[in-house]
Every structure is written in structure tokens, then in C-alpha cells.
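Re: the 216-residue chain
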Amino acid sequence: MRTITKIFAMMLISICATSLTSCLGDNDDNIESNFYTKEEAASIFKTLNGNYTGKLYAEYISSSFDAKAERDSVMNMQVRVTANDSVAHLMMPVKLLANAISGNEKVKEAIAESEAQPLNFQLFLMKSSSSDYYVFLPLPQSSFKFNIFYDGETHEVEFTFASNTIFGYSTIYAQGQYEKSSNELSFIFLPYQMVLDKKTTLTLKTCPMIYKGTKL
């Protein structure tokens, strides 16, 4: 878990845990207090609006506590946030997903050789305990599917994502932030499983993906 902690530490420090957990309470006033008004959100998205360049990390976590996590990354990753629909757009380098697949080498190799695919996230703002950051939940806007080719045939793969995942005694959440002073956008998303040809489901290794980029 040390490698995960190093990557996540700077990002998670600004996210207020009580903002996430208090949503589970019964008090409607507490729930509403965690979210911005429509007008406030529109103003924030005007700040977030724009293009970012940075790095996308992938951490492949073994089920063994003694094993060291493997890591991969892609440099010069571009993300575009559009204020009118509150969406983050990126071209997902699907080769990062390949290392999360086990038990089907042909599918793994075919995905590793595939081109980047468009992946969009709807950003839901939540209030933070810190005035230095804007905090949000990145939720995939639609199913993420594309075609791969092996054994002389075309096959469809579809990936789904989780809102959180548990590893040992820790829970990793899909979440993100915008740091006002540095104009840095960071977010975590969690590939969960893959369906091959709409019938065969493969559970992926725990593999949080972390994007960190600066506004251009």
C-alpha cells in the first residue's frame, strides 16, 4: 500500500471525509449542505473549463499484502473540461487496462495493441472543508466499449467502473479535485470488470487510475 499512499497523499488531503459520509445520514439539510446551488456550480465550472495536460497513472494491486504493486503511466495526457455539460473528456489509453486482465492472454494482448478510445466523465461537485480546492465525483457518462481483433475475428469488450473498491483495510474512492492556486486537476477512477462479446465477464485486478494535469 505504500506506493498507493505516495500517489494519493497530496490529492486526498483536501477531501473532507465527513462530506462523503454525511450523505448517508437522514437529515436532508445535511445532505443539501454538501452540494452547491445551481448558480454556484455554474460559476465553478467556468473556472474548471479548459484544457489540461498531465500524466495518467495506473496502479495494479496484488491480492497479496507482501507483493509490490506494479505501475504504468502515460505522459502528455490531454483532458478537456467543458462547462456547458460539466464533463471531462479524455482519450483513454486502453493499453493501461490490459495489465489488469488475467486469465485470457489473447484478450489482454489485443487490448494492449488497441488505440486510445474516448472516455467521458460527468463531474458532480461536492463541497470541501478546504477553500483551496474544488472537489468532485467523476462518474463515467456511458458504457465504455470498443472492438478488438484476435483469432481472425472482431470482438467487443465493455468496461464498467466502480465508485469505490476495498483493498485490505483501506477503501479507495473514485473522486477528484481542482487546486485553485496551481490550476491542477486530479481525479481517480476505478475499472471494475470487463464483458467480452456481451456474455463473458472478467473481473479485473484492483487497478486505480489516477490523472494529474495542469491547465493550459
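Helices lie at 2-12, 17-21, 28-33, 38-48, 95-98, 105-112.
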